[in-house]
């Protein structure tokens, strides 16, 4: 595939040029931004089993990580503070390392079946307070640490993206078997996947067993 090159003539590089392409935003789009977790924001968070957290390191390298758990896994400590448990993963620690370097974070809370989402921006701190971690235990396993977020901005995000994508529509669900398994994709792109189907199937089964063993 030939490498793509941007035509500098069509690059939008300043805010004035950007805003000239769009109509002025609606007043409510500005007014809806709050600096505390109100009643509805708290209710949304307590119902949500999934969020994405965006971080950046000091060099501006960005990362977005999914976080999921039973409904209500994010604890609301007060109207300006929430806590997210850090569950076992692949130990790359991308999000956590970024937070140490640059505490600014962006969160997007999702509720299955809801087309609208909740966005929260703020500053994060990594903590391992035993009392807080105990409150986040699942199957008697407490997380090693929590991401505590001091809230700066809170607002609801409209349903357009989810409706355009038809994310929750079963007749638009795709067949996962049409792509290789996670392990095969990673091996294809790194050391090479085994050609033997039985060996590959065993590796897939081992991953499923690892999920069961290390989920919490």
Write up what this structure looks like.
The protein has 216 residues and is α+β, with helices and mostly antiparallel strands. The chain folds into two domains: 26-165, Pnp Oxidase, Chain A (Roll), CATH 2.30.110.10; 174-214, no CATH class. The chain has eight helices and seven strands. A seven-stranded antiparallel β-sheet has the order 2-1-5-6-7-4-3. Strand 3 and strand 4 form a beta hairpin. The longest helix is centred in the last third of the chain and has 18 residues, at 197-214.
Question: Which secondary structure elements does this structure contain, and how are they paired or packed?
Answer:
Elements: H1 15-19, H2 27-31, H3 39-47, E1 50-56, E2 62-68, E3 75-78, E4 81-86, H4 94-101, E5 104-110, E6 117-127, H5 130-135, E7 145-157, H6 160-165, H7 182-188, H8 197-214
Antiparallel strand pairs: 1-2, 1-5, 3-4, 4-7, 5-6, 6-7
User: What level of helicity do the residues show?
Assistant: 25-40%
- Elements, N to C (H/E): HHHEEEEHEEHEHHH
How many structural units, i.e. domains?
A: 2
Number of DSSP helices? Answer: 8
The profile of the biggest β sheet is: 7 strands, antiparallel
- Overall average pLDDT: 96
Structural class: alpha+beta
């Amino acid at each position: 595939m030939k490498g793509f090159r941007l035509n500098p003539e069509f690059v939008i590089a300043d805010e004035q040029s950007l805003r000239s392409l769009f109509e002025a935003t609606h007043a409510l789009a500005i007014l809806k931004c709050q600096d505390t977790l109100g009643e509805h924001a708290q209710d949304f968070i307590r119902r949500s089993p999934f969020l994405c957290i965006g971080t950046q390191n000091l060099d501006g390298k960005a990362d977005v990580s999914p976080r999921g758990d039973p409904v209500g896994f994010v604890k609301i400590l007060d109207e300006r503070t929430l806590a997210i448990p850090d569950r076992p993963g692949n130990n790359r620690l991308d999000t956590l390392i970024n937070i140490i370097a640059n505490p600014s974070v962006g969160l997007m809370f999702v509720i299955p079946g809801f087309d609208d989402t909740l966005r929260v921006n703020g500053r994060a701190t990594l903590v391992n307070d035993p009392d807080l971690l105990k409150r986040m235990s699942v199957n008697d396993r407490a997380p090693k640490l929590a991401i505590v977020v001091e809230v700066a901005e809170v607002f609801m995000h409209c349903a357009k993206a989810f409706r355009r994508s038809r994310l929750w529509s079963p007749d638009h669900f795709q067949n996962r078997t049409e792509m290789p398994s996670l392990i095969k994709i990673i091996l294809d792109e790194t050391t090479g996947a085994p050609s033997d189907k039985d060996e590959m199937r065993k590796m897939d089964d081992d991953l499923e067993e690892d999920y069961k063993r290390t989920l919490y």
